[in-house]
């Protein structure tokens, strides 16, 4: 009888010692599994959010622009709004086929480095069609006269950022030292009364670009 009682007492004591360790081990496994699953879920959510932010960034750049010609800008690639925002202004312009004549003129005048290294400038960029409005003989004369070409091109550059609010009724000194004027409302703006902004507020790494349909000529 005493032997049986002793045996039962030993079994009970052993069970009391083993049971907590078993429960602790089970609790540890469950906790680890939940933590791992939660971490994976959080990582997927983070990746999804980051991808969404990148897409929104490109969309925001397009939404900030204005003017009827903006619709013809490529949606992707170096010539898109997002692509142009990654490069300084002269490089960004070279990726837009509608600005190839301007880019060639900038290269002839030796202004690529000047434009690319300037900070927070505004460039009124004439399209190829804008240059085509100039009689061919007159255009060739300007393109082959570096001093005159530099004068004309720097007249298209203002040394500070000009967004839509500043275009409503403004007068601004250019890098050529003479002033140009802007006016308009809504999504319709002109420069010096003649040049219409076809696509405005295009961002590059160092400049705000307004694409215009007429070449600006210095007053004198």
TrEMBL record:
SUPFAM superfamilies referenced in this protein's UniProt entry, alphabetically: FAS1 domain
Keyword Signal appears in the UniProt entry: yes
Annotated signal peptide: 1-24
Region (Disordered) location: 28-69
A GO molecular function held by the record: cell adhesion molecule binding
Entries under InterPro entries matching the protein: Adhesion/Biosynth-related, FAS1_dom_sf, FAS1_domain
Ranges where the FAS1 domain occurs: 86-216
Keywords tagged on the record: Signal
GO CC list: extracellular matrix; extracellular space
Origin superkingdom: Bacteria
Stretches with biased composition (Basic and acidic residues): 32-57
GO BP term, pick one: cell adhesion
Stated name of the protein: Uncaracterized surface protein containing fasciclin (FAS1) repeats
Naturally occurring in which organism (per UniProt): Streptomyces qinglanensis
Lineage per the UniProt record: Bacteria, Bacillati, Actinomycetota, Actinomycetes, Kitasatosporales
């Amino acid at each position: 009888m005493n032997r049986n009682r002793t045996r039962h007492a030993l079994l009970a004591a052993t069970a009391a010692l083993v049971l907590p360790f078993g429960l602790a081990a089970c609790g540890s496994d469950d906790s680890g599994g939940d933590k791992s699953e939660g971490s994976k879920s959080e990582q997927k959510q983070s990746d999804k959010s980051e991808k969404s932010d990148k897409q929104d960034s490109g969309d925001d750049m397009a939404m900030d622009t204005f003017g009827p010609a903006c619709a013809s800008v490529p949606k992707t690639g170096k010539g898109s709004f997002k692509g142009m925002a990654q490069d300084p202004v002269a490089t960004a312009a070279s990726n837009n086929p509608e600005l190839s004549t301007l880019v060639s003129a900038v290269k002839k005048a030796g202004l690529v480095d000047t434009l690319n290294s300037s900070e927070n400038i505004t460039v009124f960029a004439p399209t190829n069609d804008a240059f085509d409005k100039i009689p061919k003989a007159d255009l060739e004369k300007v393109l082959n006269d570096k001093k005159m070409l530099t004068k004309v091109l720097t007249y298209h550059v203002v040394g500070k950022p000009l967004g839509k609010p500043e275009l409503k009724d403004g007068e601004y000194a250019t890098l050529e030292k003479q002033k140009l004027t802007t006016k308009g409302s809504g999504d319709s703006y002109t420069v010096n009364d003649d040049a219409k902004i076809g696509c405005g507020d295009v961002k590059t790494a160092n400049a705000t670009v307004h694409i215009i349909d007429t070449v600006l000529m210095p007053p004198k």
